[in-house]
User: Fold this.
Amino acid sequence: MKIAVLVKQVPDTETKANLGPAGLETQGVKFILNPYDEFAVEEAIKLRDKFKGEVCVVALGPDRVVEAMRTALAMGADTAIHVQTTEDDYKKLDSFVVAKGLAEAIKQKGPFDLVLGGKQAIDDDAWAVPQMTAEFLGWPHASVVTKMEVAADGKSAKGNRSVEGGAEEIFEIPFPAVIGAQKGLNNPRYASLPGIMKAKQKKVDVVPLASLGLGAANAKVEYVGFELPPERKAGKKFTGSPEEIAQQIVQALRNEAKVI
Assistant:
């Protein structure tokens, strides 16, 4: 079974965001492998070990994304495909171009039996790339998947996916397919020291995005400006007896917040 895993390099959630005219300033930013993609990598490795085959990590972005790909390789992935673009152009790409670029690379380097990816990236929260990639491949897809059991012949899968209201939907899907992993699908392994050392020697194929006939000009969304949300005002602490606190809260709601 040959499995492709879509991964993205994202800023660490503890990184302080600094915005410039073109968006997030990358200097001094710590980047990591998108956490939801870790579930996809883990599931791919488990399936590879069960059915035999290969796990190939696929990422689109500037040269720095190779670091995130090496993390996936250190976890146990076998090879990688880097759909390469420049830092400046990358900031202009939208989910449409990213998904089409990933799909074209998968077609070029395939055939693959299955594509896995995180249900979303924690930076833009678009929730769009796995679904769009499936559309460009012409494959069925399921996202927000919390459980998946592949058939003994490796040609289909049954599983559960989260839906609104806290319920779960049971699905059955034929392969090839695209699956968007949700937290709870598995417990991603930590990269071992031997795995980290081996990852440095694993092959990363480079496919320039331009060679696929794609670039910033193909984006459907134009980014015209970026700004941080306004800083929150400092909170107010009320002290005293319960009756006094209640009175202070009512006065604050009436005189300051003016909601009563």
Residues 35-51 form the longest helix (17 residues). The chain has a mean pLDDT of 92. The chain has two domains: 2-218, 233-260. The CA atoms of residues 105 and 169 lie 31 Å apart.
